[in-house]
Amino acid sequence: MTFVPHTDKDRAEMLAAIGVGSMDDLFADIPEGLRVKALNMGEGLSEQEVYDRLHEMSHRNAHSLISFLGGGFYDHIIPAAVDSLTSRGEFFTAYTPYQPEVSQGTLQAIFEYQSMICRLTGMDAANASMYDGGTALAEAVMMAVNVTGRDKVVMSAGVNPVYRLMIRSYTNNLGIRLMELPASPDGVIDRAAAAAALDGDTAALIVQNPDYFGTADDFTDLAQKTSGAGVLLIASVYPVSLGLLKRPGDMGADIVTGEGQSLGLPLSFGGPYLGFFAVRQALVRKMPGRIVGDTVDRRGKRCFVLTLQAREQHIRREKATSNICTNEALCALRATVFLSLLGRQGLREMAESCARKAAYAKRRLAQIKGLRVRNRAPTFNEFTIELPVEAGGVVCKLIDRGFAAGFPLGRYYPELGNCLLMALTEKRSKAEIDSFATALEVAL
Amino acid sequence: MTPLIFDKSVPGRRAVTIPRLSPAELEAPLNLPEGLLAEVLPGLPEVSELDVIRHFTALSQQNFSVDTNFYPLGSCTMKYNPRVCEKIAALDGFAGLHPLLPQLCCGGTLTQGALEALWQTERLLCELTGMSAFTLQPMAGAHGELTGMLLIAAYHRANGEKREKVLIPDSAHGTNPASASIAGFKVVSVATDADGNVDIADFKSKLDRDTAAVMLTCPNTLGIFERSIREIAGLAHDNGTLLYYDGANMNALMGRARPGDLGFDVVHLNVHKTLSTPHGGGGPGAGPVGVTSALAPFLPISTVEKHDDGTYALNYDRPQSIGYIAPFYGNFAVLARALAYMLLLGGDGLRQATDHAVLNANYLRVKLQDDYDIPYNRVCMHEVLLSADRQMKRSGVRALDIAKALIDAGHHPPTVYFPMIVHEALMIEPTETESKETLDAFAADMIRIARLAQSDPEAFKSMPENTAFSRLDETLAARAMKLTASQES
Question: Do B153 and A31 touch (CB under 8 A)?
Fold first, then answer.
């Protein structure tokens, strides 16, 4: 294929206008000896050939297993209108709205996205998006350290283990001390341990709701402790749960982050996803990322523009609050369309459906001999079961029966080798849950 | 403006519904205590599906885009995005794939096709850039920069050295200093010489034993190939300093030069620029990072490997790695589009893309050189840097005014006021997918605008006039700081 429109005549005329004899002359600045003769990347193919080749690759993937995998990334419905609207070229072939007069579509959509994120989380301001839930959390940590001037960060072991590993990588060279509160798979954060960990050097306490094991909690009491100690409370949350659960802003969180994949983004083998990031009013100027604000044009018409850019890297350079530039605008648009389609009643129903199905599955699975549900505290759509044998082997057996049973926790918590993390969404039918329970019984 | 979606809300109106629960599921007790529950329903709009379709369709029509307008935004490579790549990214076997599947104990066989796609992408990027290994995980260019700087820190640390300084030319993208700083380095700026290249004397005076790396954009943001690249690489390497390549401008070099051959140790690419994945109104992109074999042990966890039996696997056993910089394997759906693009064009096609990108930029350069200042007027690479200094001095018409006049002519403006070392900069990157006719029309408008600046500078004050919105009050936005819809709406 070629996407170059030039004819031989065009090329000849243009080279003549430039005053060079050949294309090669345009590259004379590249030192001889460093010039490439030819790339060994194969010959160009037709559209059909490329499609066939990648279609074949896509078929060598087990995407049609009946899946109970979650761990922060969920198989939710995606209304057809999400794909339809976000595949409009006016949206997906535009770039960052630097010229607001010809970017109002993108700008207003981001403003609506920011508003929806604030309403879902109960926070005052949100940015235009981050790369994913993990980088959003890592940025929150760096922001908390900058805001407080303190260097210690306390994380609950109930925070997604991959996010905790990401925070370690990001802060490795910055002299930040990370401390983890021990895991409690069957309960909530140990309040005494949390209180003991908060001292005058502590910049932030990071919690996740529901936590990695599926347990839902109310952090209001912790927020009182953190605010009394000058510590910022960072909450990483699952947005679908906010259709039902108390908002982190109402609990007293200072910074709220999360993974927006569940809001109309396909799983796509790990991305692109959507990090959301929201703060209390007092922290707005320290927030990383792009922000859209409300203003008027010269004729007095209400419109939108990128604002508070003085925080950003193209102006502040090495003193910027963050280096984030291009983010996940189209993913944020997907979330905005998704949340518009669901609406207030739809998101509540979706959240309730997830929770009911999880409750049903829990009850059904608990009937299996030798199996127990680890979470003693309430859960939302995900929970941890303990099997009488090593969980990994059971998962293998069930793959052959057409199920992705869940995520064996031994990978990140060696002491939980028999435990399996299971997620339910509105897409799993009762029949699927029942047949899974039967298959699991047989596998055990 | 189009009213906000919240303003279209009518209590009780619905769009999408959720699959019905069975009686047994409805009976299952939630056991969620009052204290954990939200007191009210989420504050989302209540609208019909048609309301949503009309609302966002109306918004889309307020954008300029590659699909609707010439979009010569410098350093952003706004080329045409092939549609077959969209179709491929949406294939069920890719879009429906849970990223945890290959991490299940016997999950190795479950995602062979996706792992092969990643592996092939890596191999092609290695060949394109002359590097020996890649990580596909960084999710944007700036994320790639940060990853690269973390790799450089890990490399020096493994060699028992603590180097704290990074040299960055003053013509660099603003993200470079921010990325180096967030990776824990101190940033030192290097001057540009009269020809637009790195000032070698200044570079030499700042290069010392504490210098961990030099971050270069090549061609640089003036649109010029760094002619002293051999000397810079030699000086850096003799000093134990690594050379970082910012790939924002790689569209100038495909099939003509490879960063690896030029002496770069770490390279990031912006696949949403060079490899034509859509810009999405500001992402998602992808910023894969390539390294020499000396830095490969430090690449993020995990890496994709091909075994002798032809199967693919993820390797998590990487003791020297900088760790996790992404939750999984990168922006897979973006990378699948980039793979498709590379396969569509092949080696020769990619070189042709570069050749015509450079041809188009130089064609505009000669077309516009009489009416605008060109601070470094020599054969440029894929973009040409103009200055409106002449217009500014003669009649007070600034680069921003010219940008707004271009909007009225139906073109997206170039990048303005960047690089900062050039007054009234207008950075034009036409890309290879634009025809001679489009360039001729754009040049004619640019020349007309230059003449208007002389004859009627006052005319610019009311521009743009042909758009739904005129110039915005940006000061008000920053002062009022209204960042969300009010609760009543």
Answer: no
CB-based contact, B396 to chain A, within 8 Å: no
The CA distance from B34 to the nearest CA of chain A, in Å, is 9
Inter-chain CB pairs, A–B, below 8 Å: 727
The residue segments making up the domain with residue A376 are 66-76+343-443
Which value, in Å, is the radius of gyration of the alpha carbons in chain A?
25
Domain boundary among B314, B344, B374: B344
What is the distance between the terminal CA atoms of chain A, rounded to a whole angstrom?
54
Enter the DSSP assignment of B19.
P
Give me the CATH number covering residue B430: 3.90.1150.10
The answer to whether B212 touches B153, Cβ cutoff 8 Å, is yes
Q: Is residue A34 part of a domain?
A: no
Amino acid, single-letter form, for residue B361? A
- What ipTM was reported for this prediction? 0.98
3-state SS record for A154-192: EEECCCCHHHHHHHHHHHCCCCCEEEEECCCCCCCCCHH
CA-based nearest residue in chain A for residue B129:
A39
Asked if B24 is an interface residue toward chain A (Cβ–Cβ < 8 A), one would say: yes
Task: Judge whether A189 lies within some domain.
Answer: yes
Work out whether strand A232-237 and strand B133-135 pair parallel, antiparallel, or are unpaired. unpaired
pLDDT tens per residue across span B327-366: 999 999 999 999 999 999 999 999 999 999 999 999 999 9
- List CB contacts of B58: < 8 A, sequence separation 6 or more: B2
Please check whether residues B308 and B361 belong to one and the same domain. Answer: no
The phi, psi pair for A10, rounded to 5°, reads -55, -50
pLDDT tens, B101-158? 999 977 789 999 999 999 999 999 999 999 999 999 999 999 999 999 999 999 999 9
Contacts of B295 (CB under 8 A, 6+ apart): B133, B151, B152, B155, B242, B265, B266
CATH number at residue A323: 3.40.640.10
How far is it, in rounded angstroms, from Cα B177 to Cα A197? 35
CA distance B179 to B145: 6
Cβ contact B167:B199 at 8 Å: no
Residue A6 identity: H
Q: Which residue has the tokens 């949100």?
A: A126
> For chain A, what is the domain count?
2
Cα–Cα distance for residue pair A436/A441, rounded to 1 Å: 8
Q: What is the DSSP letter of B329?
A: S
